[in-house]
Amino acid sequence: MRYQFQRPLQMDSFPHGINGRKSSEASSPKVVLEVFAGPGTISRALCELPPSKMSKLIILENDPHYLPYLHSLAALDKRVLVRPLDGWFWTSYTQIAEEGLLSDIKVEEWDNSLKRPHPPHSQLHFVASAFPPAENGEALFNQIFRAVASRDWLFRYGAVPFSGVIPDSFRKRATAPLTSIQRGKLACMVDATVHVELAAPLKLMEDYTVNFFPPRTRGKGPENMVAVNFKPLGYQMMRVAGVPEWDFVLRALWIHKKTPVGSSLKFMAPGAQNMVKYMDQSKLRLLEKSPRDLSMDEWSILMDAFDKWPFHPRDNALSDSVLTTDKRIR
Q1: Is the pLDDT of residue 323 over 50?
Q2: b/e per residue, 58-71, with b = 16+ CB within 10 A?
Q3: Element (DSSP H or E) covering residue 212
Q4: Are 15 and 229 in contact (CB under 8 A)?
């Protein structure tokens, strides 16, 4: 069963981007797209925001047990629109777009020169009140960051901030620092695409029994949850060499996460060790490091060499990458 938050959070904490603490972020009311809303605990908290802060709340929830609670909220607040759709499927977002629910969202420029979090989209904010359990939730969580880099999905509108209540294990792997045994491909994708910050103190969220449903049974059950905000960065380094190329290289090298990069290049593609000829010779020492020790600047150096290597895999040869157009995007 999908966990659900059962205690409203103060809007100053989650998601604070909707409040717009800075005057530049509060210039227009937000359209909030909420998925996996459950009985609407966070939905109701969002409705406490005045019309000057939130103009519309679009809720996607396909569980028939929760829909009566959400429809009752929609009857009380004309800003609320409920659709019985599953937020896991990319086609659900196609459906609401075709219905015109996002027709008032403008496409904003994305300044790829900014070396900091991009000013958030002036209208749209995405909220996942829960994530599906196990692999489905992990798959969606991972692909969101790839969509940021490729400017797919909601990010075709610009630097849309997003917030979520996620398992703490997701957060730890997404923010794992250099040298950490938890660092992997996900942490690289996150570092390359977004700025991460807690939307509520860990202390506020740590008591699962008080905050979440269903209850644990004999101490067993879902892990602790955390509320997190993600702000897309201005400079998206993965767009430079290409998102499919980044995805291909990251996956190939992280398979050998304990092996020095220089020793594992040969497993990436035939002749891939020759890409070192296209590297700045003063940077060759990075080849002695394992993937978990590489900074994002060093990954960029590798990607530049991969891009310059004339025989690097292209097109169909990159098809092992997980594309955001697979499975859930129509």
Answers
A1: no
A2: bbbbbbeebbebbe
A3: strand 212-213
A4: yes
3-class DSSP assignment, residue 187: helix
Residue 321: DSSP 8-state: S
Closest listed residue to residue 69, CA positions, set 44, 34, 35, 33: 44
Distance CA 183, CA 149 (A): 19
H-helix or E-strand spanning residue 291: none
Cβ atoms of 224 and 205 within 8 Å: the answer is: yes
The rounded distance, in Å, linking the Cα atoms of 96 and 193 is 26
What DSSP assignment string belongs to 145-195?
A: HHHHHHT-GGGGGSS--EEEEEEHHHHHHHTPPTT-TT--HHHHHHHHHEE
Integer CA distances (angstroms), 170 to 99, 163, 187, 194, 223, in order? 33, 13, 10, 15, 11
Handedness of CA 311, 315, 318, 321 (dihedral sign): positive
Classify residue 117 by its DSSP letter: B
Q: In the numeric block, which tokens belong to residue 78?
A: 């004309």
DSSP H or E stretch at residue 195: strand 194-198
Structure tokens at 25: 């972020």
Whole-angstrom distance, CA of residue 161 vs CA of residue 296:
22
Distance between CA atoms of residues 65 and 39, nearest Å? 8
Q: What is the DSSP pairing of strand 4-5 with strand 80-83?
A: unpaired
Q: Percent of the chain scored above 70 by pLDDT?
A: 88
Statement: residue 174 has pLDDT above 80: yes
Pull the structure tokens for residue 235. Answer: 């400079």
Q: What single-letter amino acid sits at 140?
A: L
Cis status, amide bond into 214, omega within 30 of 0? yes
Q: Which of 192, 222, 220, 217 is nearest to 205 (CA)?
A: 222
pTM for this model (two decimals):
0.88
